[in-house]
Write a structure and sequence with these properties.
Length: about 1000
Amino acid sequence: MKSRKLKKLIVMSSLSAVLTFNSIDTQATESSSDDTNESTETSELLNQDFESVVEAPYYQVLRSWESEGMRDDSDFEAVISPSSFSDFEETQLVSPDQSEGYGRDVIRFENEESVSFEVTVPEEGLYHIDMDYYRLNEGLIDPELSIRVNDELQHFESRRIIAPTYWENETDDFETNRAGHELVPNQVAINEWQNTRFNDPNNEASEGLFFLLSEGVNTITLTNARGSMLMGDIRVYASSPLPTYTDYLNSIDAQQAEDYLEVYEAELPAYKNSSYIRPISRKDVNVHPYDPARQLLNVFGGDSWSRGGQSVTYEVEVPSDGFYHLTFKTLQNEKQNVPVFRTIEVNGTIPFEELKQYRMVASNDWMNQTLTDEEGEPYSIYLEEGTNTLTLTADITPLSPIVNGLNELLQEVNTLGLSISRLTGNQPDRNRDWVISEFIPDVEDRFTEWITLLEGYAEELNTLYGDLDIETTDEVSLGLIISTFESLREEPNQLPNRLSELSEGSSSTTQMMGDLISELQNSPLSMDQLFVHSDVNQLPDPTVGFFTQVGSKVREFVASFTTRTFDVGETEDDVLEVWVGRNQQYVELMQNMVDATYTAETGQEVILSVMPNEQKLILANSSNQQPDVALGVSVGQPWELAVRGAAYDLRQFEDFEEFSTNFSPGAFMPYMIDDAVYAMPETQDFYVLFYRTDIMDQLNIPIPDTWDDVLAILPELQRYGMNFYVPLSGSAGIKPFMFTAPFIYQFGGDIYAEDGMSTAIDSEGSVQGMQFMTDLYSLYSLPIEVPNFYNAFRYGELPIGVSNFQTYVQLLSAAPEIRNSWDISVHPGVVQEDGSVNRSTPGSAQSAMIFNQSDMPEEAWDFMKWWLSAETQTDFATNLQTLYGPEYMWHAANLNAFSQLPWDEEHKEVILEQWEHLEEVPKIPGSYMVEREISNAWTGTVFYDENVRASLDYSVITANREITRKMEEFNYIENGEVVTPYRVPQLETVEEWMNQNVEE
């Protein structure tokens, strides 16, 4: 009833809006006073600024503070010990003898606990804060906290302060695999007391965050946001400027070192603050060490050392106190002609101002970069006798003003695009003429301001990059955006028909700006060696001669004929051959685990190979060149192989049903024909509800549990120019089953008839699901096309919506600024008669299968059980993220393994709950046509206002014709008669064998 009333209200509101817009003659130059007033009111509505619903970003707040002269360069410093904290439980206080060597009382800080302390400052101003901490939690999660000053979050970045974990190699003697290639060593967290200055998660402010403290007493509250740690002293202090290089030299009484040169390999750092900044292998005679036949870990960094704030520390030794020069052998050819910046610290401090954001020149070949002044004179840097530390930190601070400006501009362009969409509707009439200036009077001025702003950014970039004669890729991107703005400014009345260039689609200016922002924040650098020396002329040449290079290529070519790789090849009869549908990075780690664990325990040798195109698996089977096992196979491929007799029925193994209880019942559906099962789920996707907690809280909008709840919050969201996202909006062409099936299943519909010989998309429940699925767009105004939900969610345009694992990874790894400002919940569903909520959704990802012609089926099954076991999957997932970064998340289908993954515990609970509703779409011959026809029916209804039931009736005829044809091809139908029944797999069948096994 509530849904029906809401639908009627929205229809009336939409009709009113249409009548309002249609009453305006946009071409008339002379209009009545009523029309003029109406246009003015509409213009004001479209151009109003939406109310801010979250704290302002730090750079805006800092700009405001500095404009009021709030900087404080005094020498104030206050140290607050844990014994002075307040508002904490007695159980949080840890005695000195249990303080992990701190020697004084400390606070155990975890589980969203809070502590407060007071600090008295002599005058109002900006102050830094740092703390001593000892990481307690295991795994990859860094402790995090939020900070309130006088009960206020002063800027958005206050929500997330990270206490980084420091890592070291388990061994610097790199192990090798069976081909002789060196392996990236395991990473070990350093369990020692550390100190960190409070900074933003993007590390866009290399000097650290400022906080505004009032004269007198201030109360600061820290709240645990994630992880666990011991907290020691807190230090509050005023900013003190670094000395210039000249002042630095004058302050130290020491001599320049003479006749000294020491070389250090960059791939062997002492420690780093990210486990996945790693050594890499380059087959390049210019690097050391080098081997034409083997892959040696001989270079440090590259893409893995590209994020702001990532630091690496080396230990160097010198024979005596004195001044030395520092040189780094580097390569930066990933961003053509674009220099990157590194901040240099010596023994934990930046020696002088010029080593902040030091420019590392881009080059297409290896070069020696000596730290020098603008005239090219090497800096003399004081080192103490014995061991010293050198720390290089990726620094994007110089580019932060441009990045922040582009972010603001992107929001302005999105606002303009949204205003025009609200004016013209989702599908504007291309034959209607608009005079946009009547509704947005300053539209041309906006474009002029934006163009001027971008031209200024281009000049700033050129200056930052060193006044290069050649245009960089970043400047080219700015030029393309400027050209588009100039074109749109010339014809503002065409904006309704050119939104794909302005703010919608993959080639829009907003997309180009989003890509440019990401590129500006990317700061890769490869480093081969570092030199501590007394004379630049002592340095070895960074590259070898031409003839040496030619000779090395010849040796590499010859070695390629004998060097073993992970390519598919011949194996011995007693060796289990496994093809893996993933890149070599994954396969190499998997092979290492197989050799160290499975083969060591069982004696069974296993060879893993990178799978060729999986579409060729059928051809490989027909020529008897198939492997024993295939991993990483896409969800639809096992059925295609099984129906052709190429896949092994796993239910033939006695312990299959027992082992299957580790997985979601619904995940088996696409791997079944009748009651036979031809693959095991390896990884598993999930569709859950993502929402911005900051925006939803500020707007006081509840998080929906059902689709009725979603409809109830849409008016409030749309009032603020926001909306709700469903995956249908992210698919411009065919709408796959994974996007349409949830609506059909949740409304009680079916996709196939029970006998599999026809489709059931015209059943009552299916029609209801299709009706709702189309009403979301035609009636409730969901955005029809969203090029990138991640971007829209990150910037608050779509603060809530349904999405999957890919979005989850993107938000965790590429949107650190909102890390504590979003959450997930179960998928919205449909309330059933018994009060339960049907949340059925597909979610299969990749699978593991055994080939029917394998001579070693028992061995293959034993290996598959080992690989898919909870212990192996957990170890693999942990190693993957530790070595390669947080974006390398492994979504194991094994439920026990997934529950142990190094993910947020609350998020895992939500995903596991959603997987209880996992119901993948089975496959039948011709199922692809059913998928296509559902998509066609949706398109006809949403775009061409066709009747849902009529569209489905036409789709049923087309789909059934193809199903019959395919059934004949696979010998289920002969001469129009069913000769072999095809039983569509049922979820109840899987649940029955699982429940029986549990009872036993």
